[in-house]
TrEMBL record:
Keywords linked to the UniProt accession: Membrane, Transmembrane, Transmembrane helix
Originating organism: Streptomyces salinarius
Location(s), subcellular: Cell membrane
Membrane-crossing segments per the record: 12-30, 42-62, 97-119, 131-152, 158-183, 204-222, 274-297, 303-326, 338-358, 364-384
Keyword presence, Transmembrane: yes
Alphabetical list of CDD domains matching this protein: MFS_MosC_like
Principal location listed in the UniProt entry: membrane
Stretches for region Disordered: 394-413
Name this protein carries in UniProt: MFS transporter
UniProt xrefs under PROSITE patterns: MFS
Biased composition (Basic and acidic residues): 394-405
Pfam families: MFS_1
Highest taxon of the lineage: Bacteria
Membrane association type: Multi-pass membrane protein
Length: 413
């Protein structure tokens, strides 16, 4: 069992890493994609919005699919599709090809995100201790590598397909090989075994998950604010140079990686509630520093705090949803269904965040606009109790699960 779990953990971590690379390669080369296909500034937002919308659809479809197939199988085949769709974006020559490639990318990335987090939650349940933040740390590491490869491609003026092809050639077979060691919700055996028909849990309603859905939305509003507005804010509001304006997002990514790499230890020592509350307070403080910064260097300090604060919220929200579903609905698949539903609000937050800050910045001021995600992130403090373990659950000084419970189905927390 130990060897099975270790292999499952390593292979899933690689899956998170590969997805981080692929997503970063797409979003950081948007200007090059626009130039290659001649997409107008008016049409570009339509293409960009279509990806998270279709990803939400893919996540909803995943909730239904995992009632009949294991999440490991869904992840095994969605990840190659994402990589091939990325290559299609780089290799096409007509707008219609771009539209199809982005549509496939969006649908498959929704299934990929949902199934990755399903497996992460179930592995954490089988381990009996917090490991979810570690998976998201490898995603951040992949994002840093992908952004670096994108920078190299732009610096050397490489064609998109030249930048994308080596990455796909390396990651696709590696992901397929690694997928044979995925571990599903029963905590034992390799992926791909038969699933009991109709086992997908549908008993955890939206009302129960609502606090976690709000936390997920607010976290991604904060994240999209940094990714879309940090450079413009530093340059236009705080008067930095164009070169310095590129630094905050890189700093944000690095501090996100560091925070997630250390976050599991914090959850084990202090508990999920304390870590989530602390993360929300630090993130809100980061937005406050950004909004009141007198200059660029203080602004970068604020974005650093944002990386350290926001990084813990999303992984812990997925973990809390899986735990809550397993406690309330003992059927196999209840946790998977809850994770798929929650994953939709990842894209809701992404869609809301960027236009919200832009509209407030134009109508009011960009300093004032930064206060809105600050308030929303602070709301997480109110909902932090939703992340609490029962007294007999692991984490934060609670009693560790009995050995006989590790690896069981929905009640083996």
């Amino acid at each position: 069992m130990t060897d099975v779990l270790r292999r499952g953990r390593a292979s899933l971590a690689f899956g998170f890493f590969a997805q981080g690379v692929a997503f970063a390669l797409l979003v950081t080369r948007i200007p090059a994609i626009q130039d290659r296909y001649g997409v107008s500034d008016a049409l570009l937002p339509v293409f960009l919005a279509a990806v998270p919308v279709l990803a939400g659809v893919g996540s909803v479809v995943s909730e239904r699919l995992v009632r009949r197939v294991r999440p490991s199988r869904l992840l095994r085949w969605s990840q190659p599709v994402v990589l091939l769709a990325l290559l299609g974006v780089g290799a096409g020559d007509r707008v219609a090809v771009l539209a199809v490639a982005l549509a496939v990318f969006g649908l498959s990335v929704g299934a990929l995100d949902a199934s990755m987090n399903m497996l992460g939650v179930s592995l954490q349940r089988a381990y009996g201790r917090s490991i979810m933040l570690g998976f998201h740390a490898t995603y951040s590491l992949g994002g840093i590598l992908g952004a670096s490869l994108a920078w190299a491609g732009a610096h050397w003026d490489l064609a998109l397909w030249v930048s994308y092809l080596p990455v796909v050639v390396v990651l696709l077979p590696a992901a397929l090989v690694g997928s044979w060691w995925y571990v599903d919700g029963d905590g034992g055996g390799p992926a791909g075994a038969a699933v009991e028909q109709g086992s997908g849990g549908a008993g955890v309603g939206f009302k129960v998950l609502l606090p976690l859905c709000l936390v997920m939305t607010f976290a991604y509003i904060g994240d999209s604010t940094v990714s879309n507005w940090s450079a413009k804010y530093l340059q236009d509001v705080l008067g930095s140079s164009e070169q310095l304006a590129t630094v905050p997002y890189n700093v944000y990514m690095v501090t996100t990686l560091v925070g997630r790499a250390l976050g599991d230890f914090g959850v084990r020592r202090f508990g999920a509630v304390a870590v989530v509350r602390g993360g929300a307070v630090v993130a809100a403080g980061g937005f406050a520093v950004v909004a009141s910064a007198p200059g660029a260097w203080v602004g970068m300090l604020g974005f650093t705090l944002l990386g350290l604060g926001l990084c813990v919220l999303v992984p812990q929200t997925f973990a809390a949803a899986g735990r809550l579903a397993a406690e309330r609905d003992g059927r196999p698949g209840a946790s998977d269904a809850a994770v798929a539903r929650l994953n939709v609000f990842n894209y809701v937050g992404f869609l809301i965040g960027s236009p919200l800050v832009g509209a407030l910045g134009d109508a009011w001021s960009y300093r004032g606009a930064m206060l809105v995600p600050m308030v929303l992130v602070l709301v997480t403090v109110v909902y932090a109790r939703s992340f609490g373990d029962r007294p007999d659950r692991y984490g934060g000084g609670h009693e560790r699960p009995r050995t006989a419970d590790v690896g069981r189905g929905s009640n083996g927390l």
